[in-house]
Amino acid sequence: MKPERDPMDVAVGAKLRKRRLAARLSLADVGKGVGVTYQQVQKYESGANRVAFATAVRLAEFIGFDGDELVAAAVSAVETSEHARPRAPSARALALAQRVDRLPAGQRTAIDRIVEAILDSPNNRSDLAEVARDGHPALSYAH
To answer: Which Gene3D superfamilies does this chain map to (predicted)?
Structure first.
């Protein structure tokens, strides 16, 4: 099984390929221009190999575009992929989960419902007040 390609590597490679083709340069031209093989350029473009920052800058300069485009492509890939990947819980979230886990089952269920109401709401404050009115007075607040 092939290892999964990093979204940043794929995005940077796609940007390199797009710009190389627009400049009407071959893989061999680019490889020769920056001192790597055409196979290596091909691997960079496919995202199979991670391109070192200095090499990426040299590639951009040789092809004739600003290396900032590569950084923008990488940042965009990270922003997109971060939403797709679940994040590890913070230490604070883990500590809270451990405390909640020590509560009786009924109280855990009530807390779960409260959290769901907050998360499902486009306006967390109004739903929180609604949950408090529906039998959780400890959550009431003056506003």
So the answer is: lambda repressor-like DNA-binding domains
Query: pLDDT by residue (tens digit) across 85-117?
Result: 556 777 888 888 888 889 898 888 888 888 888
- C-alpha 37: how far from chain center: 31
Q: Backbone phi, then psi, for 20, in 5-degree steps?
A: -65, -45
**Average per-residue pLDDT for the chain:** 81
SS (H, E, C) the chain: CCCCCCHHHHHHHHHHHHHHHHCCCCHHHHHHHHCCCHHHHHHHHHCCCCCCHHHHHHHHHHHCCCCHHHHHHHHHHHHHHHHHCCCCCCHHHHHHHHHHHCCCHHHHHHHHHHHHHHHHCCCHHHHHHHHHHCCCHHHCCCC
- pTM exceeds 0.90: no
Annotated domain spans of the chain = 7-84, 91-137
Give domain 7-84's CATH superfamily: lambda repressor-like DNA-binding domains (1.10.260.40)
